[in-house]
Every structure is written in C-alpha cells, then in structure tokens.
Amino acid sequence: MAETKGLKVVVIGGGSSYTPELIEGFIMHHDRFPVTDLWLVDIPEGEHKLRIVGQLAQRMVEKSQLPITVRLTTNRREALVGADFVTTQLRVGLLEARIRDETIPLRYGMIGQETTGPGGMMKALRTIPVLLDIAKDMEELCPDAWMLNFTNPAGMVTEAILNHSNIRAVGICNSPIGVYKWLTSLYEVPMERIYAEFVGLNHLHWVTQVRIDGESKLEELLANRDGYSAKNVPQYEWNASFIRSLGAIPTYYLKYFYLTEEMLADQIESSAREGTRAEVVKRLEDELFELYKDPELAEKPKQLEKRGGAYYSEAAVNLMTSLYNDTRDIQTLNVRNQGILDFLPADACIEVNCVVTKQGPIPLPVSVMPEAAKGLIHAVKTYERLAIAAAVSGDRGLALQALAHHPLVTSVNKAEPMLDEMLEQNKAFLPRFFAAQTV
Amino acid sequence: MAETKGLKVVVIGGGSSYTPELIEGFIMHHDRFPVTDLWLVDIPEGEHKLRIVGQLAQRMVEKSQLPITVRLTTNRREALVGADFVTTQLRVGLLEARIRDETIPLRYGMIGQETTGPGGMMKALRTIPVLLDIAKDMEELCPDAWMLNFTNPAGMVTEAILNHSNIRAVGICNSPIGVYKWLTSLYEVPMERIYAEFVGLNHLHWVTQVRIDGESKLEELLANRDGYSAKNVPQYEWNASFIRSLGAIPTYYLKYFYLTEEMLADQIESSAREGTRAEVVKRLEDELFELYKDPELAEKPKQLEKRGGAYYSEAAVNLMTSLYNDTRDIQTLNVRNQGILDFLPADACIEVNCVVTKQGPIPLPVSVMPEAAKGLIHAVKTYERLAIAAAVSGDRGLALQALAHHPLVTSVNKAEPMLDEMLEQNKAFLPRFFAAQTV
Amino acid sequence: MAETKGLKVVVIGGGSSYTPELIEGFIMHHDRFPVTDLWLVDIPEGEHKLRIVGQLAQRMVEKSQLPITVRLTTNRREALVGADFVTTQLRVGLLEARIRDETIPLRYGMIGQETTGPGGMMKALRTIPVLLDIAKDMEELCPDAWMLNFTNPAGMVTEAILNHSNIRAVGICNSPIGVYKWLTSLYEVPMERIYAEFVGLNHLHWVTQVRIDGESKLEELLANRDGYSAKNVPQYEWNASFIRSLGAIPTYYLKYFYLTEEMLADQIESSAREGTRAEVVKRLEDELFELYKDPELAEKPKQLEKRGGAYYSEAAVNLMTSLYNDTRDIQTLNVRNQGILDFLPADACIEVNCVVTKQGPIPLPVSVMPEAAKGLIHAVKTYERLAIAAAVSGDRGLALQALAHHPLVTSVNKAEPMLDEMLEQNKAFLPRFFAAQTV
Amino acid sequence: MAETKGLKVVVIGGGSSYTPELIEGFIMHHDRFPVTDLWLVDIPEGEHKLRIVGQLAQRMVEKSQLPITVRLTTNRREALVGADFVTTQLRVGLLEARIRDETIPLRYGMIGQETTGPGGMMKALRTIPVLLDIAKDMEELCPDAWMLNFTNPAGMVTEAILNHSNIRAVGICNSPIGVYKWLTSLYEVPMERIYAEFVGLNHLHWVTQVRIDGESKLEELLANRDGYSAKNVPQYEWNASFIRSLGAIPTYYLKYFYLTEEMLADQIESSAREGTRAEVVKRLEDELFELYKDPELAEKPKQLEKRGGAYYSEAAVNLMTSLYNDTRDIQTLNVRNQGILDFLPADACIEVNCVVTKQGPIPLPVSVMPEAAKGLIHAVKTYERLAIAAAVSGDRGLALQALAHHPLVTSVNKAEPMLDEMLEQNKAFLPRFFAAQTV
C-alpha cells in the first residue's frame, strides 16, 4: 500500500476511565493500524482526570516500545488538525447529569435510564449540540477524517451528525461485540467462525441469526433463554415462551420495553438501596482513578472490566483497522438506513451488519426482519427523530412531542412537568433552549 | 341507469339495538338507494331481540309507505342468497364477553377497553373467525355483494376479511362522521362545505386538515382543545401545549395512549362506581328494548342517541348509496393501504379518506402525515397483524407476541397469565385455539 | 359560499388561435365560474394576433351579455397582479421553431415530433425557462393563483414548475378528455356515467379501465382496436393481437414507440408531400386568423375544430370550475407522483386520475398497473428528468444524456451532432446554454 | 472446520469446450475447495463431445495427482444425488439454434444477438424450461446444493429459477471479473486492492466506482474511453463526451443500446463477410475439440482463450470457494434484488456487488445509482419479466408483449411475424408453446 506515514488519532473525552482500554487496543494492533500521533483531548474541567489517564497511557506506550507519541490537551482544535480518526467518548455534564437523568423520571413513575426513555432524551439534548460543534471543527480542520462516535445515546447522536454535518461518521457500541464474545465463549470458537445478524437501532436490536460455520444455533439459544447481559442493565430472566415465539434474541436493553413494570420496580428498589447506576459508576470510577495514579502501573488494570463498557476498545480498533485497510469484513454498526429497513426514512440511523470498506461501512440487507419488532423500532425511531429535531432547534414543543411518543412515557400530562423539570435542571447545558429566553 | 330491480340488503346482527337507526336511514334515502328486500339476521340465541327490533322495523317501514319488505330470520345462508349489500353489526359472546374484555386487563393493571388494548384483542380473537365464516358464505351465495363491516375492532376485522377471503368489504366506523357532525354544528355549515383529512387506523386516527370552503380552521381548533368526544370514551381534556405542538386533532380513543395513566385510573374508579362501560350499555339496551316493544312506536326513539353509536346509520347509508350510485364523493373508511402510508404493508387496513366509486372506495394519498404519529400507528398495526394472525391460526404464541408488542401492555411477564385467563374465559368462542387440545 | 367578488383569469399566450374556445368555455360556465376580469397576454411579437383574437373575444363576451371585462396586454406583470387563475398556452419560437423540431431529427433518421423524441426535447429546452420566469412573476404578483399549464411538452414543463418554483400548478392536456368524448359518442352516455382510468405520463398514457355505470367495457374495446385518434398524430391501426395481449388502450402518441418504423416512414413521406405537421398547422392558423378578423363574427368558428386541440377549452374550464368550487370530481391531470407510481420519484410529474379539491388535485392510486408499461414509462421519465435538468442548467452534457437515453434515439454517435445542430438553430431561445459562451 | 468429507460437484453441460478451464480452476484451488467427486453430465446428443472433453479432464486431474475422481455420464439424475455444487453451462439447441437467434432478427432489421434483443428472448424461451427441470431434480436429489448458473441469458434464467423453484441458485457471468482483470493489468495491482462497484442487470451493467487502495480512478478511466471489450461483442469506440457526461463505465453489451444503428450495420456487414458470431464460434470449437483429442494434452490449451468466455472458470471457482468457506468477500453476481434497486420488484434478478457468505451472497446497497441508467434498466427488466413469464407459461401473447417492450424492437407490426418465425423454427425446443396445439 502506498501510504507510509503514520496515523493521527484524536480521542475526544480522553480523560475517560475507558481510555486505557483504547490504548491497549492501539498497542496490540499496531502492525495493522500504525498510529503514531495519539491526542487525548478533554475539557478544562476534566484536565485533572486527563492528566492521570494520560500519564498512564504514556507509561503503557513506553512499555510497548512502539513509535507512538501521546499528547494531552484541552485545546480541541489544535488536536484535530490533520487527524485521520477521531473518537468521541464524552459525557456532557459529567456523572452529575447522569444522576439527574436516572432520577427525575423515576419521580414521575417512569423508567430512569441513561440512554433509554426520558433520561436518554435529556442526554441527547445536552450532547447533540456539543457533537455538532466537534463535527463543525472537523469539517474545517480534518475534513477527510472518520469520526467514530461512542457517545451515547450513540444512535441518536450519530444520526444528528450524519444529517447535520458533512463529516464521515460511524456510530459504534460495545453491545454487538458483546454478543459475539458471549457466543465465542459459549461455543468455544473464534469470532470469525460466527455469523450473527443484528437488526434494529442502537440499544434496541434483535439478533435474528446465529450461525457457527454456517450452521444455525438460533433455536437452541432461544430454548436456553438465559441470554447475555450487561453490567449497566439489571439481570432479568426473559420469559421463556415469549422468547421462543419471538424467534429472535432481544438485546438486554429491550427489557425496559418488554418488562417495563419489573424494571421500574427494580430501579426504585435499587436506587433506594445503593443509589442510581450513575452513583455506582461514580464510585467505581473514583476507585479506578486511584489505581491509574500509581506510577508503577503501565497496563490496563483488571478492575476496569467491572465498569460496563467491555470490548469498547476492541470494537473501536477493529473498526478503525478495517476502515484503514479496506478489510471488507462484517461489523455491526450505526449507519444511515438507506432503504435497509424499508419502513424507516432513508436517513435514519440504524444498527445493522455492515461491510467495512475504505469508503466506509456499507449496510447489509437484513435476511430476517421479525414482523413483531417493526412497530417498536418505528415507535422508538419516531421519538428519536423528534428528540434530535428538538436538540438541534431548542424547540420545547418538539421535546414534548418526543416524550409524548416515547413508548415508555405513560402520560402526556405528566410528561410536560417532567420535561420542564429536566430542562430547568440541565439549563447550563442547553443554550439552544434557553438562549432565546435570556434576551 | 339501466338497473331497475330493487336492492337486497342483509343486516347480520339485525337484533342489535342499533337497527332502528339503520331502518330510518333506508327510509330517508330510499329515492337514491332503493332497497326492496331487507333481511334482518341473528343467531338463535338472539331471536327474542330480533323479534322485538324486527317488528319495530316493520312498523317503521309500514308507516313510510315505501315498497320495502322486512324479513326476520336466524338462517343466515337463506338471507344471503343474491344479496347486494351485507352489513355486519354483531357481538360474539354478547355483552357478557365485553364485560370480561373490560375487566380482566384491569386486574393486571392495564387498560380494559372493548376495542383498544388486551380487551380489543380478545374481541378480535372471538370475532374474526365468525366474520370469516360469513365471508365464506358470501363468496358462495352473493359473490358480488359488498360487505360493510361495522363489527369491532372494525379495522382488524376488515383487514382479516380483505386478506383471508375474496369478497368485497369495507370497514366503517361512526367516529369520522362524528367529527364532521361536530364541525357542522361548530361552524354551522352543511357537511359538503367541510373538508377534513384523516390519517391512521380505526380508533387511532388524527385529523390533519379541517377546511370550510377551502379555508383552514385547524389552528383555531387546536388552540381551542376541547375537542369532540364519544359516549363510550371518558371525557378528558387534552393537554393544550401537547395538542398545539402535535399540529393535528387526535381521536378521543388516542387518550388511551397519550393519557394512559389517567384513563386507567378513571376506569378503575368508574368501574367501582357504576360497573364497566359494558354494564352501563347493558342497562341502556334493556331500557331500549322495553321501548321497542311498544306496538305504538313506529320511529327511532330519541333515547337511542345515548347508546354511543351516533351516526352509524348515516355513515352506513351514505356508503351504500355512494357505492350504488358511483357518487365518487369523499368518505373516511377502512380500506387496504396500497401504499398510501408507505411505512405500512400494502395489505394493511387503514382509516383514511377515500373516493367512493361503484368499483369500491379508492384511498386518497394523505397530504399531511404527522411525523410524530408514524411510530404509534406502526406499533398498533404491528400488534393488530399479530393478533389477526393469531385469530386465524389459533396460535397462542402469536397471541402472546401481539400482547407483548401492544403499546399498552407494560410487562410480558404479566401478559402471559393475563392471556391464559382471557383465553380460558373465552374458550367457548375460540374453537381455533382449543380444538387441537381436545384431540 | 362566502366569496362574492368575481374572478381574475390571465391567459398567457392569449393571441393563440385556441383562445376563442376558452372564451366560449368561460361564457358557457359563467354561473359556476364567475370570471369578471379576463386578461389576454402575449409577447410584443404576437401583438398583431393578440389584437385580432382579443377583439373576437370581446365581441363574443359582448354578445353573451355577461359582466366580463376582456383586457389585452403585452405587459405580463401588469396582468398577473392579483390573478386567481393563470393559463399558459404559448409557443416559444412560434411555429418556425416547431418546423425545426419536426425536421432536424428526420435528417438523422429519427422521429421528428413536437412533443415526443428529440423535437420534444428541443421544445422543452426553449420553453421551460420561459415558464419558470412566469412562475417567478406569479410567486411575487399572485402567489395564491393556480397555474393551468397547457404548454407542451406539458408533463415536462409542469414537472419543472412544480420542482423549481413555489406556485400552485397543474398540467393539463386535451388527450384524456378526448378519450371521454370518444366514449360518450361510442356508448351514447353522458361523461358522468363513464369511469376511465389512466396511467402514465403526458402523451404516454394507457387507459386501463373503462366502465359505463360500473360495468367494464374494456374487453370489447380491445377487441375492436380502431381506437381513437388525434388530428396531430397520423391514423394507424394498432396490431390487434398486440392490443389484446396488452390489456389496455394506449394513447395514440404511443404509436411513436410501438410502431416507430412505420411512423418514421410516414413522417418522411408526408413531410415530402405536404410539409411537416407544423407547416400544415401554420396554414390552418393563417386561415383561422382570416376568419377571426371578420367583425361580424362573435362566436367560435367551426373550422377551429380541425386545429387539433379539441376540448382544450372544456378541459381547462372544467378544471378551473372544480378548483374554484371544491367539486371533488375525478379528472385526468398532470401532477406530482407522490408515490402513486412506486417506481418513479415522488416528485416526478405523472398523468393520472385525480380528485379535484379546492386545495388542488389529489392523485388517485391506480387500480391496474400494466406490468408491460412500467419500463417504457420509466425510460421516458428518465429522459424527461435529464432534459428538465438540462433546460434548467443549460448543461450540454445533460442534454446529450437525455437524448442518449430516449427510447427513440438509435445512436449516441448521431445524437451528438443532432444535438449540436438543434442547439445552434435554437440559439436565440437558449440563453442558459449560450450565455456562458458569449462572456 | 468440522466438515471433512470431500465435495461433490456436478457440471451440467460438461461436454462444453469451456470445461478444461473449470478443471484447471478446481486443480489450482484444491486446497481451499477440496472437490473429490466431479461429475460431467451431458445429453445423449452431446456424448461424443463429453467423451473428448471428459478424457482431457481426466488426464489433467491425473497429472495434478490430486484425489479427484472425474465421472462422465448422460444420466443427470444419477449425477445430482447428494451434490454440493452444480454448475450449468448448456446450450439448448446447440450452436445451430444460436445461428437462428443471430440471423432471424437481422432479417427484420433488428439486432441479432445471442443474449440481447429478440435472439436473447428465443434463447430464454428454449432454455428456461430446461433449467427449471434441472432445478426440480435438485429439489429432490440435492436440496441443499448450490446451483451456479452460467447459462445465458444468465440473468433471466437465474430469475426464473429463483422464482419458480426452491433451490439455492446464483447467476454468474465472466463480464464483471473481466473488468477486474482489465484493471489489474492497467494499474498493475492485484485484484484485492481494487474496489469496483457494478449496478444493473446481467449484460446491462454500469461500473460506477473504481478505486485502487481506496483512491478513485473513475475520472481518469472515463477520460480515456477505450474501455475493455469482449470477444463476442464487436469493438466500438465509445463516444467520448457521452461517456464523460454519463459518469460511469458501461459494459460493452450496452453498445447494442447506445449505438444500435452502428452495431446493426456491423452485424449485417460481418455476417455477410464471415457468418454470424455463432458460426465463428462453431469453427473455433471444432478446432478446440481437435486439440482436446490429443492424448498427450493434459492441460488447458492456450487457444481456448480466443473462445470468448475468459475467466469463467476463475469466477466460478471463486464463488464456490467463498460459499464453501464463508469467506465474506465481495463478488459481482446475479441475485434477487430485495430492494437494492428500489424501482425494480424485490424478486427481480440484478447484477450487483455481493458479500458471499456461507448462507449465500448478500447484495450490497449501491452507493451510486446513475439516474440516466434507471429507465433503460427498467425497460430491459420489464422485457425480461414478460419473456420469463412467456417461457414458463408458453403464452404467445406474453412473448409478443416481451418483444413489443424491448428497447431494440422498432415495430410491433414487425415483431409479430418475427416472433412467429422464431417460434416455428424453435418448435422442437418449445413444448410449452406447442404442446396445446398438438392435442
């Protein structure tokens, strides 16, 4: 291949506790993805954490003896100049905002979750404008770079970027690779012998095919409904006859929709017992940063696995490697629909299998579309598009419509005061909503 | 026009308390719709009521001095021979079944309603096979006749007939004509000067345009949200800012979706106070039949208007008249989608404006499709199609999927025992579900 | 109805020989379409003809004793102020340009016709920019007016207006009403008892249903293939077994596609014998204008019927009357596809049955789509869209692509010099193509 | 991988002169595609050629020292039992029929070609029933086998198989791999560094993207229009400004459409000079079989390359290898549309890039769809579907409609006698057309 210069990668939200995973990935795959300039960027408020994580990253690279330079900065525009790949893993409003996302809805009798339901909408309203600003910088400073967006709600954020900027962006989540990892351990085969087909949206997918060496394993997986789970979603057993007649494996996030009552009861109970998931994560992160400070530490600590974002790094490095090398392998990503799901708009962002080429991921037609899932996918996508439009415009009416049409919102009459409370509490992060009023 | 013979009309469920409305309609419009043979058909269990209503019908016709023969029978096949129009207004399991539809879901903490939610599904499971039997008879005995299906859930029943028989059928509901009547009284103009555009499904529509002599009245109607209501749906005021940002007038049935919590609380309270709606209706019907018995009575009694099916007769006679005379006027009907709503299957039954020609109603493209409504329409249609498939096949798994994907069902874990209870209690009317087990 | 003021109608190309037909229509239907201000507009070069026709129009109105004022002007903008309806019936480059459209292609061995094939493209390239200028004036001077576009190629011109301006426009052709007239005379019934369904594009439609009082007459019409014809298309008998297996009645313009060789031979022979159709028309028009000059003449002369545009006036007045009165009757018009033909873009202009409401025509879904016709419709529409894009941009490459993809063009190698000759000869009317070069 | 048994491959039309190419491919790729049982099947009339080619195949295998058994048979059903892969490369009516396909249309002034135009239709009418018989045998004898259909017209034959049988089939052509080979030699890079995107139908495709290591080469290829060519299509230079404004590289078969006049003149001239292409091929084949008889020959002779089907073997072995090994690489194949081209039916067969998985090829959404090509693709597909329906039903009316709607047929009046002559001359191979008449 003609390209010989090394690659410049920018990690926005570089002070995240996840960063060591990513560093490990870059080190392990350096032969196929020769990053030479690695920039960790964070906002001034996060500089302290950036310093701690960044120094660990530098120690990890040093130990690897690879020609990678790690740069730490709070000047995003400086970092972006001439970048080849930009990853985004940020949290507008930090964990404090997440605590509010998880608690306010609960007070109105509705699911309080970081990416799903009213909490997810608030996160979207805060986050989309920030990501659009980053995209605008990229249009100017590195127009050919790929953005890999990990920032949640990843599907909505990616759709906003794809439809409101001109950069090249892909949304990515660790949930699909988690399914692969579960299957590799269940069947004791390497990932490349597995064929799994996903359909749906981010945090709202169904697995409709599982094959090992071409042979279907779906029926036996449905019969044995234990399924896979995730750290940040309570472990609930699926109803066996429901799963069998569904004929597909739902992601654990679908428990918020299929088992709303139970999940809500669990949230109320566990937040009383141990605080919200955000508070649990906050304690975990504090512990992690204590570990990261250790000047002897030069590798990813084991404890990071408890954190919930398992395989993020692997998913990210796989995608960058395939984009760079034109590998044309199949990965499950968040991309423009382009007619794959014929009941959704062509520019809606969906989560499906893609072939990753140098020109970007090409979504694959789905071979199985569970009829039962169509309505729910469309209902959530309808909410998502209304919420994206609200985030971009700062229009309260659109935000109210988004809530009113979310399947987990049980009363428009309650949605309105809940919205007002959420907007008020997030005021500092919602200039598009509040700008007009201050005039 | 060449046709000179009079028309044969068959009313299945002729013993219904609504029948006098229909008779009144046939009498008033006899010049344009010259019915000569009118058959009222009911099942043997309904013969007593058929007799009472039928005799009233005969007195009404006699008084009109029109050349109409009214025949009463419990032999459906005899009645159908050579019919031109067949209307269906029946209730499998009578009001007793409706009481169960309205009470069982309430015990599981979900909306209990005759046509919407789990109760509506039970009604569909009981009703669809009976209507398919009628359609089969029609294929044989009057293959060119039109069926006007009033039987609820009218959209689902009509979709089942259109996709599982070869007869010509249209679904019809009094809710759209109710909107027109509300507008005629509000603006004091005749119906023909009003243009209202409907989009959605039966009992799940939005009015997206209202024009008087071409001038839009929508904004002022949205600002004044009082809206219209129906006897069988509790009167709730819509949230004003919700209605304004929605930009369309939702049918009162949409309160079950947009105000689920409030409607559920109201159901619990009112069923404790006065019994379910079914029980209220039962009392009203008993009173009506007492009136009907009066041998002096030869017209529709005023009290019928309390019953809830206002304008049914007018809607039905309008449709028959237009089909017969190739009138090509616009009516809101339940017909095959055929691409009008591009996100739904072509063979889904939808409720939209149609031009009524002699060859049948042709659905009109919608000029406004509220983005916010798409997901909910698709979610409910997904449930409907699963429930229709369950009704046709007697497959419990499909019925469970239908419930699991209904927006008003809040837990699959609760849906399963609720389904079992509902199936068990309706056993006598569900041969397709229970036949296999008896073998 | 509240509206009491009379209507202002502007006829652009008012000096056309067709105008007396239109005047007759306004007079006959004045009770339902109360025009009070009628402006006939033409370009300065056409002032002489405008004077002759206009004075005949004034005599016709005077004789009618109706309160209509006829105004003649060459100041289009003055005429358009506050107009309610604008009709366009103009010919950029006059009959001289049509002669070139009909003769240049013949020299390259291809069909030379005013609206079909390379000649039609040249007409489109000359005409579209002029109509867009009129539309621009209307946006400013009468934004709520309806434009009824008769100007050929009517489908392409209308598509250009609909997609490149904000005015309300409908394309209209006398060919569909001609089918109705043929059927009324064949079956001796009034038009309102006929139901004919059209599908396709302007000058490229198929009639797929013909019903009298609801009864199908299609099979007998196909068996008797004589069909209807038009003054400006040579009379050729259709091949009987072709028409029967086609199962639809093709418009006479389809002979250019289905009988290309014979039509081409006929054009070569008849243009040698009597000149092109344009030259024949020119002689007819000269005769008509001689008649129009007669100060005793105060009605449409019989000879006008030879001209070829039979029923234009009736079609136009019908459409204006229905738009004005919200009649909601069915007319065959050129409107936006909006999904009616699912294989064409939503914004393509098609010719189909529409319900005419006060808000405009609503296209009706087609009940029969002949599979055999799809490819030809799409091929011609592809050409049309390329040609429209060429007309708007002045891009020679697009014009070459349009020709290369026209089904009647048999060689790209010949298309290129033919295009160059046509552009050169129409230079005076193609500022968008030649502007850049003069700089 | 668990599978250890060798593979059984059946070559139907094994007596073809192409077979040595295929044998060479199986030998070269035996490590990745371990065929052990290779059956060459032909009809009794072809037994002599089967013997000659088969013995050469056996000598080639022997020389390779691989564990492959080559079996020769005229008993197709015996060969198919338990097959893993079946390839079809047959010619119903032999080269004599092809001579008729190429000469009859010429006499009516139309293109005479083996796969394109009226000749291609006749080939389809003869061939489709035979392939459906093979598919029926496969349903019974090897239901899990893959059929690789090379038999022309490959797109139409494959569509017929996919829609009228239950086997797994892919259509394959050497034309796309020919483009890759041309690019490898032009840019001196291996195939895997090239990314080319194809869109269209078999023998009617456009190349819309060419990238080497991700960098676009399309513009420079369009500027240098020499293009690639094929042995069986005369070499004509494309018109330079046409190719540039088209923005895609058309297959050489598109010259029949874009340069109809020139191609027709060339056919008339060359068939007078050297006979039809069929006759040229016949002479070539006779020479090849003379060579094949040489008992010393144990490899593919060089002269085979003149024959016209270059890279057939490579394309076939690539596809079988990828299906067998779940390689998930991109190949250009003829498969069900499934919404990829949204203007064609979902079950139409199209030629596009696919990812080849063990479950079969998955077509990739096209990233560029040239607007100019849509109409022609749809026109040819319309013809193809009518012709397939005619082949399956034996309906002369459908065959006439197919011709009438083929872009290369210039007169329905000529199409009818041409059809009659072609049917009559192919009577022996058209039982579905003539069966009814003999009763």
From TrEMBL, chains A, B, C, D:
Binding site for substrate: R98, N152
UniProt-listed GO biological process terms: carbohydrate metabolic process
Marked site (Increases basicity of active site Tyr) residue numbers: E114
Cofactor field: NAD(+)
SUPFAM superfamilies: LDH C-terminal domain-like (SSF56327), NAD(P)-binding Rossmann-fold domains (SSF51735)
The organism's place on the tree of life at top rank: Bacteria
Family: Belongs to the glycosyl hydrolase 4 family.
Database matches in PANTHER family: 6-PHOSPHO-BETA-GLUCOSIDASE (PTHR32092:SF5), 6-PHOSPHO-BETA-GLUCOSIDASE-RELATED (PTHR32092)
Protein name (database record): 6-phospho-beta-glucosidase
Organism whose genome encodes this protein: Paenibacillus elgii
